[in-house]
Amino acid sequence: MRPFGYVRAESPEAAAALVAGDLSAAFVGGGTEILNWLKDGLADPALLVDVGRLGLDAVEVSDGGLRLGSGARMSDVARDRHVRAEFPVLARALEAGASPQLRNMATLGGNLLQRTRCAYFREPSFPCNKRVPGTGCPARDGDHAMHAILGASDACVAVHPSDLAVALLALDARVEVLGVHGRREVAIEDFYPHAGDDPRRETALRHGELVVGIGVPSGPRARTSGYLKVRERGSFAFALVSVAAAVEVVEGVVRSARIALGGVAHRPWRVRAAEDALLGRPLADGSVADAAEAAVRDADPLPGNRYKVAIARGAVRRVLEEIGERG
Amino acid sequence: MIEVVPSEGGVVPAAVEVGLVVNGEARRLVVEPRVTLLDALRERLGLTGAKKGCDHGECGACTVLVDDRRIYSCTTLAVMQEGRRVTTVEGLGTPESPHPVQAAFVEHDGMQCGMCTPGQVVSAVALIAEGHAGSEDEIREWMSGNLCRCAAYPGIVAAVRAAAGGAS
Ligand SMILES: Cc1cc2nc3c(=O)[nH]c(=O)nc-3n(C[C@H](O)[C@H](O)[C@H](O)COP(=O)(O)OP(=O)(O)OC[C@H]3O[C@@H](n4cnc5c(N)ncnc54)[C@H](O)[C@@H]3O)c2cc1C
Ligand code: FES
Ligand code: FES
Q: Domain range for residue A11?
């Protein structure tokens, strides 16, 4: 690790100003992700600005929904009784992520800002368009068992690793951002850009913008939501495929739905065609099978990750069945 | 705030003073900001119980308690823990008077080579306090942040169950 300076910011505003004013500065929340980058040569900040003790860790409940502080730890949010009862998809996605020790350290803000686990990206001796534009993507012809089956670009086939982001997409969450020019809100759907020419662009944040909170509307679907994560081992592994779903059933038929996939694309991936397949129909075998099929209709897998298509189809079906059984 | 002192060739971070309460004892040490809590414990305080297995948050060998919560000491900086209470395996018990979890690991053969054991023991202490020792499945899930290359898992799970007061 190269040497760097460290300051504990005294307020969110001060933190944003410190990083905005210094291109070589970076925030640190729990440190569970950025310390790996520092050790592996993926980042080289001259200054770390600690935002882990700014008091941004509240979990607040209002009529409209939830407001989660960006500094809240994954474990504390997952354990919250209101979150567990009213936003099951959120509690489950958080609890399915990382390990108990990591969840005790990791902040929600840091979770949203984590970067792909593509092994070629993480190891600087490989070429990688995401690290060094124009050098190529060894995953396409190499080991891409863990890579994207949806929405990839020619330049990059990496996937986004966050479980939290997938749950937030199914909940229409909004990310509250503080910059030197004030606050703004970004819908989670716009927080992660679509694949463009430059795979280095991973979020809508500008340098120095601090995530201060996440707003989660309770809406008609949050309570009837679920999360299913398929992993290579029983626990403590990133998703091969995950599914977050939230379904509103009124008088026996689906009035609205959100279905988002994780582990399949460079961003959490909403599948509108799968949502549409449910609308106006009972949440039952026929509609569920159609939704599962629609979820993977646009899949364009690589030779080494075709298996993900079947897993995604099955996972969508299972999570919808589980929501149906709960009623 | 911690000072950043300018020196030749740019801004070089000064070593910073960090105060920690380690195993009940107030300790002050001067470290560069880049020093992890794990390295501070092992290299500066001579507490070599917490192990450096992967140094990337993937194995759990470095598990310690900070303010009674289990964390990986390899993925946090010592300076980030300023003012906090740190408990390592050395703070749990002694060979003469082991912590009940330590005794249960001995009793139930919860180890082979022993490399992962300090992390397993500290993690198990927290798991029991969290109330996650209700069943074998629950223990396996909530011990998943501690890998064992020797695969001593059956003994580890038996030890955690016994220490938590379940059937042995
Ligand atoms: C072995 C391992 C397994 C894991 N498995 C999973 C998994 O299964 N699912 C999953 O979802 N995650 C997983 N993770 C990732 C883990 O959840 C993240 O490392 C963690 O959430 C990052 O949070 P942090 O607070 O530690 O971030 P940090 O390391 O402190 O920061 C990460 C990034 O976020 C930026 N940042 C931090 N806070 C803010 C803020 N408030 N505003 C703007 N930028 C900010 C930092 O500048 C940095 O760029 C795993 C990690 C490890 C090491
Ligand atoms: S050494 Fe810290 S988790 Fe492996
Ligand atoms: S006892 Fe050898 S690694 Fe666990």
A: 1-54
CATH, domain B100-167, list 1.20.120.640, 3.40.50.300, 1.10.150.120, 2.60.40.10: 1.10.150.120
- Across-strand partners of B10? B7
Kindly tell me the burial class for residue B12, based on how many C-beta atoms sit within 10 Å of its own C-beta (0-12, 13-18, 19 or more). middle
- Helix, strand, coil percentages (3-state) for chain A, rounded to 5, are 35, 20, 45
Q: Is the pLDDT of residue B27 over 60?
A: yes
The mean pLDDT of B40-66, rounded to a whole number, is: 98
Residue of B36, B55, B66, B122 to mutate, ligand 2, most atoms within 8 A of C-beta: B55
Q: Select from A18, A99, A103, A233 the residue whose CB has the most chain B CBs within 10 Å, as the one to mutate to test that interface.
A: A99
Same domain, A31 and A170: no
Could you report the average pLDDT of every consecutive run of 10 residues in chain A (327 residues)?
94 97 97 98 96 96 94 98 97 98 98 98 96 95 97 95 98 98 97 88 96 96 98 97 98 97 98 98 97 98 98 98 91
State which of A19, A54, A77, A113 you would mutate to test the pocket of ligand 1, scoring each by most atoms of that ligand within 8 A of its C-beta.
A113
Chain B positions in Cβ-Cβ contact with residue A31 (cut-off 8 Å): 75-77, 80
* Structure token digits, residue A141: 């012809």
CB A78 within 8 A of CB A94: yes
User: What is the per-residue pLDDT across B66-109, written as a single tens digit (0 to 9) for each?
Assistant: 999 999 999 999 999 999 999 999 999 999 999 999 999 999 99
What pLDDT shows up at residue B166?
62
**Is B151's C-beta closer than 6 angstroms to any atom of ligand 3?**
no
Say if residues B84 and B21 touch (Cβ distance below 8 Å): yes
Ligand nearest, relative to CA of residue B149? 3
Q: What per-residue confidence (pLDDT) applies to A195? A: 82
The Cα of B90 is separated from the nearest Cα of chain A by a number of Å equal to 19
Give the Cα separation of A48 and B80 in Å (integer).
Answer: 10
Cβ contacts below 8 Å, chain A against chain B, sum to: 106
Could you tell me if A62 and A206 lie in one domain? yes
Superfamily of domain B4-91, CATH level 4: Beta-grasp domain (3.10.20.30)
